[in-house]
């Protein structure tokens, strides 16, 4: 079972490495493309016999050239080619691979794995905070570039955050503390024998 998980994680590592490489190459594209939604409702509401849609807003890709170094480094070029979150994903996948490589079924609780799991939950938290800060910056940049005509699409943030969410972080954080208690219990058991 562990061998199958290791193979799956190796495939994930290879995929993450490829995404990081493509993301680095995409950083040198001049244009930034972000999914935006207009602030103004379209003139025509959509009505049908089965439904009616009011306050329809147009969505689309806003293409612009970064105006400074911060925008060039900080803004994703395309939705899935985000070098920073892909790099964090690669680090998390690598740590998971090492956890499953080092785990011993007879005595699964020990310090080395605890350190790796702790690093995983810290990386997820960092990715979560990074996603929120960059989302706020993206909202500012889009309003500035479009003179207030467009907002960042909500689907853009939701699809780019991936597993860097608060819920994921809480689950991994709780698992880490349960594992830490397992390490302490196993150390006590080894001392009493």
Q: Layout of helices and strands, plus pairs?
A:
Blueprint: H1 2-26, E1 32-41, E2 46-47, E3 52-53, E4 57-64, H2 69-74, H3 83-102, H4 111-145, E5 150-152, H5 154-161, H6 166-192
Antiparallel strand pairs: 1-4, 1-5, 2-3
Helix pairs in contact: 1-3, 3-4, 4-6
Give the termini distance in whole angstroms: 30 Å
Q: Looking across the biggest beta sheet, what order are the strands in? A: 4-1-5
Uncertain regions spanning at least 5 consecutive residues: none
Q: Structural class of the secondary elements?
A: alpha+beta
Describe this structure in words.
This protein is of the alpha+beta class. The protein has one domain. 63% of the residues lie in helices and 13% in strands. A three-stranded antiparallel sheet has the order 4-1-5. It has a two-stranded antiparallel sheet with strand order 2-3. Helix 1 runs antiparallel to helix 3 and helix 4 packs antiparallel against helix 6. The mean pLDDT is 81.
What would the keywords be for this entry?
alpha+beta; elongated; 193 residues; single chain; 3-stranded antiparallel beta sheet; 6 helices; two-stranded antiparallel ribbon; 5 strands
Compact summary:
The chain is α+β, with helices and mostly antiparallel strands and 193 residues long. The protein has helices at 2-26, 69-74, 83-102, 111-145, 154-161, 166-192; strands at 32-41, 46-47, 52-53, 57-64, 150-152. It has one domain (2-192).
């Amino acid at each position: 079972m562990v061998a199958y998980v290791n193979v799956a994680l190796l495939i994930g590592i290879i995929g993450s490495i490829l995404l990081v490489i493509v993301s680095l190459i995409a950083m040198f594209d001049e244009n930034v493309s972000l999914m935006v939604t207009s602030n103004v409702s379209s003139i025509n509401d959509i009505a049908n016999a089965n439904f009616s849609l009011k306050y329809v807003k147009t969505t689309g890709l806003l293409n612009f050239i970064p105006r400074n170094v911060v925008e060039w480094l900080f803004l994703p070029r395309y939705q899935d080619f985000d070098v920073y979150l892909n790099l964090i994903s690669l680090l998390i996948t690598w740590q998971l691979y090492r956890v499953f490589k080092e785990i011993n079924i007879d005595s699964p609780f020990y310090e080395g794995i605890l350190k790796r799991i702790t690093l995983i939950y810290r990386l997820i938290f960092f990715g979560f905070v990074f996603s929120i800060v960059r989302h706020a910056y993206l909202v500012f940049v889009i309003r500035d570039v479009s003179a207030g005509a467009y907002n960042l699409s909500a689907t853009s943030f939701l699809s780019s955050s991936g597993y860097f969410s608060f819920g994921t972080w809480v689950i991994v954080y709780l698992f880490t503390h349960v594992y830490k208690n397992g390490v302490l219990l196993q150390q006590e058991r080894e001392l009493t024998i």
